[in-house]
Design goal:
The structure holds two protein chains of two kinds.
Chain A (H helix, E strand, L loop, with lengths): L3 E4 L2 E3 L6 E7 L8 E6 L6 E5 L3 E2 L7 E6 L2 E6 L8 E7 L6 E2 L3 E4 L1
Chain B lengths: L2 E4 L3 E3 L5 E8 L6 E8 L6 E6 L6 E3 L7 E6 L4 E6 L8 E9 L8 E2 L3 E5 L1
Parallel strand pairs in B: 2-11
Antiparallel strand pairs in B: 1-3, 3-8, 4-5, 4-9, 5-6, 7-8, 9-10, 9-11
The chains are: A mainly beta, B mainly beta.
């Protein structure tokens, strides 16, 4: 099983700043198989990015993903108040699919 | 626009079982997997199992083998998740989510979640 670790646990930033979220895998993950999800309080998760760097439909371009192998990054440029959420990384190249524990972004 | 609609919240006593439904709208039901994911209060996301609506083939996480049963009804585009022998640790929000056949596990659309309270 591929274990995903995310850091930091919580990120407190101001509007307009840039958030950098890290996701580390216990073994190599194919770039095609790494996703990021956003979960706002009381809501279901929403797909943000698939295949490491491809934004889902309707996701603003201030969200960007990068990385390879065991190190992946989600960057949120120019934070907006509505970006307050927990962000989870996920690998879906290996069974079972696994999720990171999440990074909470406080605005 | 694809959409998944789940059944409402449930309150159960320990030892009971629960069945949650997930109805699909706006896409061809048989063309996508349905995954089930659990989120305990204040916790992260945990994959439970998946079903292929076309064939009914299922796959379960080892932790949930023998406790979870996934079924589907293609006449109503609905998937069901049955969880038996409930314990307090099963108190959680349960989500269904759609994944494409070509990329199983990529959870493109999610249901709104169903809270199950075991008490």
């Amino acid at each position: 099983e591929t274990v995903l670790t995310q850091s930091p646990g919580t990120l407190s930033l101001s509007p307009g700043e840039t958030a950098t979220l890290s996701c580390r895998a216990s073994q190599s993950v194919g770039s095609k198989y790494l996703a990021w999800y956003q979960q706002k309080p009381g809501q279901a998760p929403r797909l943000l990015i698939s295949g490491t760097s491809t934004r889902a439909t309707g996701i603003p371009d201030r969200f960007s993903g990068s990385g390879s192998g065991t190190e992946f990054t989600l960057t949120i440029s120019g934070l907006e108040p509505e970006d307050l959420a927990t962000y989870f990384c996920q690998q879906y190249g290996d069974s079972p699919v696994t999720f990171g524990p999440g990074t909470k972004v406080d605005i | 626009q694809a959409r998944l609609e789940q059944s409402g919240a449930e309150v159960k006593t320990p030892g009971a079982s629960v069945t949650i439904s997930c109805k699909a709208f706006g896409y061809i039901f048989s063309d996508y997997y349905i995954f089930w994911v659990r989120q305990a209060p204040g916790q992260g996301l945990e994959w439970m199992g998946a079903i292929t609506p076309k064939s009914g083939t299922t796959s379960y996480a080892q932790k949930f083998q023998g406790e979870v049963t996934l079924t589907r009804d293609t006449s109503t585009n609905t998937t069901y998740m049955h969880l038996s022998s409930l314990r307090s640790q099963d108190t959680a929000v349960y989500f269904c989510a759609r994944a494409p056949i070509r990329l199983p596990g990529l959870l493109e659309y999610w249901g709104q979640g169903t809270l199950v309270t075991v008490s």
